[in-house]
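Me: I'm a chemist; would you kindly supply a protein sequence with its structure tokens?

Assistant:
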Amino acid sequence: MLYNLLFPLADEFGLFNLFRYITLRTGGAVVTALIVSFILGPPVIRWLKSKQAEGQPIRDDGPQSHLLTKKGTPTMGGVLILFAVSVATLLWADLTNGFVWVALLVTLGFGAIGFADDYIKLTSRSSKGLSGKAKLLAQIVIGCAAAYWITILTPQPLSTGVTVPFFKDVLLPFGAFFVAWAIFVMVGASNAVNLTDGLDGLAIMPVLIAAACFALIAYLVGNAVFSNYLQIHFVRGTGELAVFCGALVGAGLGFLWFNAPPAMVFMGDTGSLSMGGALGVVSVATKHEMVLAIIGGLFVLETVSVIVQVASFKMTGKRIFRMAPLHHHFEQKGWAESTIVIRFWIIATILALVGLATLKLR
């Protein structure tokens, strides 16, 4: 909004020329989302507590310690993240840029699905919300609309092509299958973050680390000079997604303030589904879907642990892990929650650095 209102006046007021810089507006989005989170966090948490007398329903099949340590903590804190991201993005991004609206569509759409899921859990006082099929179908519908929109915004052959890390000239022509691929990435990322969100602060830090990485990637991919120097595919307009990612970082930091152990609020599916979807749509738009699997490798590990656990139990009747997802396995081994969270943060940071290295190693 500020860009659209003030930059056209740059000829009369030279100071307004600053708003043309994506880096400045990305920084502004980070700070804005952070301030919004800090200001609205306490009243939002108080309101959620007033509406959730018993807090988030705790799964009976999860770690037994959670029945005591997590009881009474309100959920749906993702509404705070969504509001902060939306305000910061709408304030600092170029609102004529289609990629910005696609990112907001997926983020708010997936957030709405998570909100419905959380609401059903709370009103029914059960750990079961929306059915898996209903949730997946809703995600696919939103993902399909977003994928098709991205193909319209992106010129051929990039619009239906998929790049490969470490190779500068490789572009896999997915053609009509690109929409299915994009849906898989967005829905997969969304549910992977959802599976990771099981301990205080565990999911939000890797999310904001990944968002910071993709802010840089979006800026480089959307800049003809830098993309040519790094020999990565240039996608006009995606640089504006750096502002959106900056909003994710600021909102994530603000939420972490209240979600740090012991958590005052949980993000719930409202937050986890939307944040994963946001990372997924940015990776699709910037043509770095495979890099997301590296940068967000922690989410991949958590998801694979669940798949392996279920497959092993169905095929052999035996479990590979003491409990899945992976973070619960280490809980059952006696690791302190803070130890698991911090070590997983370290893993997320290392994987993010490896993912960023793909920009140069070609």
